[in-house]
Amino acid sequence: MERWISLGDYNPETTELRVRSGKGQKDRLCYVTDGAKLALDIWLTARGNEPGPLFWPADGRGRPLVNRRMTDPAVLPLL
Predict the structure, then answer these.
(1) Which of 38, 40, 42, 18 is nearest to 28 (CA)?
(2) What are the per-10-residue average pLDDT scores of the chain (79 residues)?
(3) CA-CA distance, 51 to 67, in Å (whole number)?
């Protein structure tokens, strides 16, 4: 069961974001809007288009460190 969001789960053209195994273990489709889209576009410019997790750990300046998934405890404070 995948519980993470990969780069391929986001479509910047339509702003669709697929969330896998959400509440009730169901996949959901949501849309990124306004400030969140702007922030995500900035992140994707820094991240690049290499396949893998949508979010990677980054340094304090927002530069991606490595292509690996963030742990649940690392993501929680960002929400």
Answers:
(1) 18
(2) 78 90 76 91 87 82 73 72
(3) 9
Reading the block at residue 61, the tokens are: 């300046």
What is the Cα–Cα distance from 69 to 75, expressed in whole angstroms? 10
Residue 49, token pair as written in the block: 């288009």
DSSP type of residue 69: P
Residue 33 CA to residue 37 CA, distance in Å, equals 5
Terminal C-alpha separation, the chain:
22
**51 Cβ partners below 8 Å, 6+ apart?**
6, 7, 8
pTM over 0.85: no
